[in-house]
């Protein structure tokens, strides 16, 4: 587990500070409104759990599961919905909560999908962003940190379904996946 981590990118304390900063901004921006947080399973669970506790406007939560990378580390560019939201998004102000944006393919698809379901508004919040890997240009409204092109795990993020339970975000040793 820990021996597979090359170095820690964000400690638990650093993550908590980022979550506070993003929540403050969201609370300002959505003042007087209601919010629906939609987390993308499974990677967003830790971020979602911490972020929602800091939201002070009236708020509902839901989840979507979209097809993942399988056991690889590279996006295949095709997105399938494995689990849909369990309530109407019509006229709701939606904030998609994501662990990391890489190619942007998943988020681009999901935002359009929610807009087609007549959401009132759709914004995107991500803890991590890899801008150098973007294939589809999407507006990202809230970003925790931009990170270099390295494969990271922990705090919900996985490699082959492992490491999600690490409390910090670490760079995985390339020897683990190559
Ligand atoms: P995108 O469609 O390429 O932007 O893929 C985003 C999804 O890929 C994220 O929600 C993650 O599940 C996964 N992903 C991308 N980069 C990483 C990484 O460095 N570690 C773990 N998962 C990643
Ligand atoms: Mg994900």
Automatic annotation (TrEMBL):
Protein localization: Cytoplasm
Pathways involved: Purine metabolism; IMP biosynthesis via salvage pathway; IMP from hypoxanthine: step 1/1; Purine metabolism; GMP biosynthesis via salvage pathway; GMP from guanine: step 1/1
InterPro entries listed in its UniProt record: HGPRT (IPR050408), Hxn_phspho_trans (IPR005904), PRTase-like (IPR029057), PRTase_dom (IPR000836)
Domain of life: Bacteria
Entry GO CC: cytosol
Record keywords: Cytoplasm, Glycosyltransferase, Magnesium, Metal-binding, Nucleotide-binding, Purine salvage, Transferase
Family note: Belongs to the purine/pyrimidine phosphoribosyltransferase family.
Function: Purine salvage pathway enzyme that catalyzes the transfer of the ribosyl-5-phosphate group from 5-phospho-alpha-D-ribose 1-diphosphate (PRPP) to the N9 position of the 6-oxopurines hypoxanthine and guanine to form the corresponding ribonucleotides IMP (inosine 5'-monophosphate) and GMP (guanosine 5'-monophosphate), with the release of PPi.
Name of this protein: Hypoxanthine phosphoribosyltransferase
Lineage summary: Bacteria, Bacillati, Bacillota, Clostridia, Eubacteriales
Gene that this polypeptide is encoded by: hpt
């Amino acid at each position: 587990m820990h021996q597979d981590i090359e170095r820690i990118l964000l400690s638990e304390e650093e993550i908590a500070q980022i979550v506070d900063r993003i929540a403050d901004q969201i609370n300002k921006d959505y003042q007087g409104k209601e919010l629906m947080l939609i987390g993308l399973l499974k990677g967003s669970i830790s971020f979602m759990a911490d972020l929602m506790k800091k939201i002070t406007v009236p708020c509902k939560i839901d989840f979507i599961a979209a097809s993942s990378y399988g056991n690889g580390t590279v996006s295949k560019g095709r997105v399938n919905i494995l689990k849909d939201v369990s309530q109407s998004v019509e006229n709701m102000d939606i904030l998609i909560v994501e662990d990391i944006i890489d190619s942007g393919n998943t988020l681009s698809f999901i935002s359009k999908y929610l807009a087609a379901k007549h959401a009132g508004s759709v914004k995107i919040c991500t803890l991590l962003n890899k801008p150098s890997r973007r294939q589809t240009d999407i507006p990202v409204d809230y970003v925790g940190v931009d990170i270099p092109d390295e494969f990271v795990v922990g705090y919900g993020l996985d490699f082959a379904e492992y490491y999600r339970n690490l409390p910090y975000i670490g760079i995985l040793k390339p020897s683990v996946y190559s």
